[in-house]
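Write out this protein's structure.
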Amino acid sequence: MIKSYAYYFAHFFIIFFLNIYIANYYLAEIFGEYQFYNTLLVLLIALSQMGTMQSFTVFAPKLKNSIKLVYATLLLRIIGYSIITLITFIIFLILDLSTLAFVFLLLFIPLTINLSSILDFYNKTIIDVKFNLIFDAVLFSIISLILIKMDLSIAYIVIARFFTKSIAEFLKYNYIVKYIGKTKISKKYVIWMYNKSKVFILNRIIVEMYARSDILLLGIFGTKKQVGLYAVALAIYNGIVMGEALMARKLFPKLTKAFNNFKETKRVITISILYKTVYFLSAIIITLLLLNDIVFTYLYVNNEYSQSSIILNIMLIGLFSHIFANNTNYLLMLKDKFLYIKRFLIGLVLNIILGYYFYQKFDLEGFTLAIQIVKIVMVSYSVYLSYSYINKKIREVNIA
């Protein structure tokens, strides 16, 4: 496990510093356009994966012949990619978008396939993080630095990522075939997986729209430069959140295994909250006292990114919402899927309304504050719903 963490952190820091170099070289306006299409791509992946990212995690532990589910999942993702890419390509043509938008459709292929959840299920996370480090971090960074030295456009950076990410996913697939199970396509499993995944398609698209709405909204009613300034601060923020994401790869599977054992579920969620509280409080203090000044003095050397420092400080408010991430994840596991959808749908609507209003009144800083306020409101809603449901079930069991 220590080796997995080492690979994971190494991958993050290499990409983190590469993005700083890219941002410094191309400056905020071009970097902002790059981040806008990158965010749009992630939103489209929510559709192209056809809900299989969540459904595989939920249903794989419940089936004996999980290898057939693996290949049913991959086939559905290939079908989803083909459909969504065709539709998106036509829309991009109609809107007459820049070449950069079309280039991102290439990167769409390996990101849709994404074998991480499958390898996690088979306790082969080490394979996922190892190949990501070698190809999606080290090789990608080397090629990107060469492209920048050649003074090529940022579109070539995207093509390089497509190339290196594709190699990583191909090698992961080859590992699955060789050591986990050979290809077994079952029509019955494909149909079953599709039917089980349908509810997650709407879930995932609403969740991703909510999660990515800040960059997308700013790209719509702000400027490319503002998107770049915001994206730089968001990169630091996501770096802080990375620790929580790493914990989630261990804590969420425990939550799925504890499902229907309500006392154990409550215990897992409570432990998760304690771990994350210590982590995020420490991260906030370190960022305010030390990290922010270092990053925007020695790493982002161009003065136009000085506003990003202020944006980052405002973003720290939203870190408290990540402490209760498993409360929200629990809603996804309940039979009433509308509870989960409603939570993010309300958040999306609030982001649009408050984000636009605060942007008009207080510019970029106001927009950032609005997004953090919505995060806190929505996670409070998740905590209330999850604990109300769990405590009700515990009372019912005790009475019985």
